[in-house]
Amino acid sequence: MRPNQILAVSLTYSMLSKEVAKAVVEAVRRELFTPYGLRSLSPAAVRYRGSYVGDPVARDSSYHQGPAWAWLLGPFIDVYLKVNGKKAQMQVREWLQVFSGHLAEAGLGHVSRSSMAIFRIYLEDVSLRHGASRKRCERLLKMV
């Protein structure tokens, strides 16, 4: 299993029925989700290599074989909210709280450029729906 199918669910006019979309999101959550991104390949796959370490050849050969990609959290959270509705907002907040610990790790106070989608989702889909002003959200986004 790979994360590409999340992008099919994320389309405004998806070709997937609501039932299939929900099943895809649940399967991806179960198989690929990590607090820091979606794995590029399921750990159940024979070719799974979950770490991106070693010399350039070792890293290049594992790039699409399991390491988590932070940028995919944005589309994943979008579709998780899309198929699960308002009841999913608390779960998304918990996931984002875990991810916020990343700000205290390497590159203190900074988030990798690819992770900006995560904060856009938080600001647009979670904060605004709970009464935060658009100006406050825009200020937070500029700070990140």
Walkthrough of the structure:
This protein is globular. A 3-stranded antiparallel β-sheet has the order 1-2-3. α1 crosses α4, α4 packs parallel to α6 and α5 packs antiparallel against α6. The longest helix is centred in the N-terminal third of the chain and has 15 residues. About 4% of the residues have low confidence. The chain is 52% helix and 5% strand. β1 and β2 form a beta hairpin. It has one domain. It is mainly α.
Salient structural properties:
144 residues, mainly alpha, three-stranded antiparallel sheet, 3 strands
Number of strands: 3
Give the topology string: H per helix, E per strand: HHEEHEHHHH
Task: Give start-end ranges of low-pLDDT stretches.
Answer: 113-118
Strand count, sense and barrel status of the largest sheet are:
3 strands, antiparallel
Strand content: under 5%
The helix/strand class is mainly alpha
Instruction: Sum up the overall morphology in one term.
Output: globular
Q: Helical element count?
A: 7
Return Rg in Å. Answer: 16 Å
Query: Residue share in helices?
Result: 40-55%
Task: Give the N-terminus to C-terminus distance in angstroms.
Answer: 32 Å
Compute the average pLDDT: 75
Report strand order across the widest sheet: 1-2-3
Count of separate structural domains: 1
